[in-house]
Amino acid sequence: MKVFALLSLLIASPNVADATCNGQCYAAYSTPWMIKCAPGYGHGCDTCPECDQFRTPAPTAQPVPAPTAQPVPAPTAQPVPAPTASPTALPATGACFHSNGTVLLQSGAYKPLSELIIGEFIKTYDAEGKFSFSPIKTLPHANNDEPAAFLTLKTETGKEVDMTSDHYIPNCDLTVVTVGELVVGDCLLTADGKETLMEISWTEKYGVYTAVTENKFIVVDNVVASSFSKDSHPEEPELDYEKYRMELERIKLQKRLLGRKSN
After folding, report:
1. What is the sign, positive or negative, of the torsion defined by CA atoms of 204, 208, 213, 219?
2. Amino acid 43: pLDDT
3. DSSP symbol at 47
4. In sequence order, which residues have a C-beta less than 8 Å from that of residue 209 and are 6 or more positions away?
5. Which of 11, 89, 96, 174 could cross-link to 208 by cystine, CB 3.0-4.6 Å?
6. In the structure, what pLDDT confidence band is assigned to residue 54 with cuts at 50, 70 and 90?
């Protein structure tokens, strides 16, 4: 019996001698603390401080890694569409006045371009901005009924003049542009001063003419314009006529295509 009691003391937890628990579990000193501290033990020892060494430690909270910031892709540049040509835009070719354009003679009478004679004095406008009458030096186009596409320019007071799209014309500060480059709202020089361009339209007409004087500009239908164009051939008018015909055919084709799309 003494041997058995000694073995029991050895098996018991070394904390038995120092145990401070004064409950029933301490009374059962012969039972090892490992057993007494088991959850559900009859004496309820698992709540004693001596059982702290046998309790399963609470799991250590692991730090939750912060989400890795994903790189934000740069926005993909969208291709910029090329500007669409206006349906009313005309090719920049051809350069002349229509035969119904009139000029003011020194005598005070108006005369159509198609009836002018070399040597007649017509109203002109020089590079210094002064009106005067200057003699006609050349008439590049003989009498003709050549077809062409004409742009009709209409000013705020109702002045109208017909010119092909590549004909040169000065604006109010004497900057020279082609008629095809004009837009509504531009300022034009007229026999009565500066006027605003109110309307631009195009029509097919027959007969192309111009007149060349000693001055830089001539006055046709009371609007100041150049005698020349970007692509004119004063010495070979047939080249101009061919150009006008080709331009007119392109415009007609363009108009037919636009008509099909609208349907």
Report:
1. negative
2. 58
3. G
4. 96, 97, 98, 99, 101, 113, 114, 116, 139, 141, 144
5. 96
6. low
At 112, list the tokens. 């159509």
Q: Tell me what pLDDT residue 262 has.
A: 60
Give pLDDT tens digits for 104-141.
999 999 999 999 999 999 999 998 889 999 999 999 87
Place of tokens 């005067």: 132
Is the whole-model pTM more than 0.90?
no
Edge-first strand order for the sheet with 212-213 is: 208-209, 97-98, 160-163, 147-155, 193-206, 187-190, 223-226, 217-220, 121-125, 131-138, 212-213
3-state DSSP assignment of residue 29? coil
Which domains are delineated in the chain?
2-54 (no CATH), 97-262 (2.170.16.10)
Give the Cα separation of 61 and 21 in Å (integer).
31
Contact indicator for 150, 98 with CB cutoff of 8 Å: yes
Q: Over 90: is that where the pLDDT of 1 sits?
A: no
Other C-beta atoms closer than 10 Å to the C-beta of 148 total 27
For residues 159 and 148, is the Cβ–Cβ distance under 8 A?
no
Looking at residue 151, its pLDDT comes to 93
**101-106: long-range contacts at Cβ-Cβ below 8 A with a sequence spacing of 24 or more?**
101/161, 101/162, 101/209, 101/220, 101/221, 102/220, 102/221, 103/211, 103/218, 103/219, 103/220, 104/191, 104/219, 104/222, 105/133, 106/133
Question: Is residue 198 over pLDDT 70?
Answer: yes
Distances, alpha carbon 56 to alpha carbons 16, 43, 62, in Å: 21, 20, 17
- Residue at 188: amino acid letter: L
